[in-house]
Write a structure and sequence with these properties.
heterodimer; A: mainly alpha; 7 helices; B: about 45 residues; about 90% helix
Chain lengths: ~220, ~45
Amino acid sequence: MAIRSLSAVVVILLLAASAYGAFFLVPTEATMGIVQRIFYLHAPCGMTALSAFLVCFIGNLGYLFKRQPKWDWLAVSSAEVGLAFCTVVLLTGPIWAKPAWGVYWAWDARLTSTLVLWLLYLSYLILRTLVEDLDRRALISSFYGVFIFLDVPLVYGSIWWWRTQHPQPVVFTSGGLDPTMRKVFYLSWFSLTALMALLIRQRYELEQARGEAEVLARELEAA
Amino acid sequence: MKNLGSVFAAYMIGWGVFFGFYLTVARRTSALREEIERLKNSLNRGK
């Protein structure tokens, strides 16, 4: 419990430090102005959402090969956390787009594939509520989870494969970002990844408790 | 300082989503823990 509280405090401090960096340390970008500072939340959130969906994919594969509930718990936990991060991406993007593009939304490849990704993982969670039997639920959702992960590389590669309105990557290219901007970006990415790990851990415990409750309910029914 | 409000709104929305998610997970977990206790007590009474 003490370790969990300590890690929560560390994550909050990291998030506060990255917000401080985005508001007060980075220089104002010449073309977009102050609204570019949304980038330090929006882009790392997108990368963290994709990481969470990767963890979900691993959990789904783990269940298909091992048939142990812990893999299914990991998959559903990371799907829900990834969906929360993806929601932030879809909400903060339009806030940036309106001043930058003049519109909140454009149906380009990156934006559309991200919206599809959000809908797919939402349907993954809805699917789980429709199957009552634990093993069948885990099996069906694992197959579905492996299938919907196909959209993740599509989202990632969309800005290279198609002509999009979405800005091109600047982080992993040489000379794309000012050194302070790069440091704040990495700090933000690291703190959001730590938050993702904390939330997955928290959500996993919920799933573990649900598993325990379902086993006890069955025992009670049988008694 | 044009659009500073948009930056602020984006951060508030982002943190709001994460905080809200954390709260719902914590609430659901504590409700389940109570349910587990209740089920354990019912099982013990039945034995």
